[in-house]
Amino acid sequence: MEPKIVAFCCKWCSSAGADLAGTSRMKYPPNIRIIRVMCSGRIEPSYILRALELGADGVIVTGCHLGDCHYIAGNEQAKKRVEMTTELLETMGIDPRRLRLEWISASEGARFASVMTDFVEEIKELGPSPLGGVS
Known about the structure:
Number of domains: 1
Number of helices: 4
Shape: globular
Structural class: alpha/beta
Radius of gyration: 14 Å
Order of helices and strands: EHEHEHEH
Largest sheet: 4 strands, parallel
Mean pLDDT: 95
Helix content: 40-55%
CATH architecture: 3-Layer(aba) Sandwich
CATH topology: Rossmann fold
Strand order of the largest sheet: 2-1-3-4
Strand content: 15-25%
CATH class: Alpha Beta
Low-confidence stretches: none
């Protein structure tokens, strides 16, 4: 079974990194479904939980490196929200490794491909999400 991964990517940095990976023909698994957002700080915990509820086996939030946010401190907000959501997942009995936060800049296409490949492999080891979800 190939895992389903939802990637919330900041428009300004990590989404541009994904574009660079694609235009540079860097290989990474096709399991990633990218949702481009204006800022990683806009990702509410409910979005992450909803993705898992609807069948994602893993969720990754990516944004600008700390100190480089186009919205001043949005990535710091993202860090707090992901940490809070990780604790919530643990409380729910869901392995917190199903959620990851990464900082990827627009010039880091190779890093984007590497992070996505690593995350897919980790989720494969964990197996399908216990939430099941709707296909």
